[in-house]
Amino acid sequence: MRIDLHAHSTASDGTDTPAELVRNAAAAGLDVVALTDHDTVGGYAEALAAVPHGLTLVTGMELSCRLDGIGMHMLAYLFDPEEPELARERELVRDDRTPRAHAMIGKLRELGVDVTWEQVSKIAGEGSVGRPHIATALVELGVVPTVSDAFTPDWLADGGRAYAEKHELDPFEAIRLVKAASGVTVFAHPAAVKRGRCVPESAIAELASAGLDGIEVDHMDHDTDTRARLRALAGELGLLVTGSSDYHGSRKTCRLGEYTTDPEIYGEITRRATGAFPVPGAGGATGA
What is the pLDDT of residues 138-189, one digit of tens each? Predict the structure, then answer.
């Protein structure tokens, strides 16, 4: 089995619609794909209606968190999307994205970049606006060559010249909320140093004690040595080890299935989660 547990659609900052995402996942030879848009479950209905035969969809989400001033992302899988406390918190995070984007655009304009809300809003479409949409605008304007090059201290990285804060969850609270919604939590790309400061390994140990289920080890932002170190840490802490593409369509260079999760780990995730269940494809809608 080929299992990719981290992918984004136009419901947040990907370029594939949810329907396109599941069709592309099947075309890439995947058996399982997880839809993990940022702070939203808005892509679920379209994706579920379009899952093709031979592919299983795992519903999920990537929650924006912050610990001791350091941004981090928490993947949540197979939770009950109707659980009210988690739903309320994800709405708070999502709703704060618009004023934050306005603030970052204002800072960029002060830096002499002729970016506008209209441009960023058009790029985001119906998705939840975020830094990747602003980064795409910077690419369009010729300010940076790629989206990744916008995530530096000069521009949009945490603490960067054009950075603005938004409402983010304490990761311990995120674990509690997802657990209360009968889901599973995995710390996304925990050592992606290119993105900025990372939480220390001592904090990962504390998160494990609080109920964290796993860490995403095999990821394009982790080199070989980092993956080996994280795999050893996961073994010490009794954490599950996942791998995934963190696919964003054409917005990033990663490909669906570039990194994958071991079927035994996937089986353990589905055993622990009872808020929702993987959905095998029934043919899917066409032309969505």
Answer: 999 999 999 989 999 999 988 899 999 888 999 999 999 999 999 999 999 9
Q: How far apart are CA 64 and CA 72, in angstroms?
A: 6
User: Which pLDDT score, from 0 to 100, does residue 126 have?
Assistant: 82
Work out the number of other CB atoms within 10 angstroms of the CB of residue 118. Answer: 9
What's the token pair of residue 283? 């043919």
Decide if 214 contacts 175 (C-beta within 8 A).
Answer: no
What is this structure's pTM? 0.88
- Is residue 230 within 8 Å of residue 217, measured between CB atoms? yes
Whether residue 101 has pLDDT greater than 50: yes
User: What does the pLDDT look like over 61-70, one tens digit per residue?
Assistant: 999 999 998 9
What pLDDT score does 283 carry?
73
3-state secondary structure the chain: CCEEEEECCCCCCCCCCHHHHHHHHHHCCCCEEEECCECCCCCHHHHHHHCCCCCEEEEEEEEEEEECCEEEEEEEECCCCCCHHHHHHHHHHHHCHHHHHHHHHHHHHHCCCCCCHHHHHHHHCCCCCCHHHHHHHHHHCCCCCCCHHHCCCCCCCCCCCCCCCCCCECHHHHHHHHHHCCCEEEECCCCCHHHCCCCCHHHHHHHHHCCCCEEEEECCCCCHHHHHHHHHHHHHHCCEEEECCCECHHHCCCCCCCCCCCHHHHHHHHHHCCCCCCEECCCCCCCC
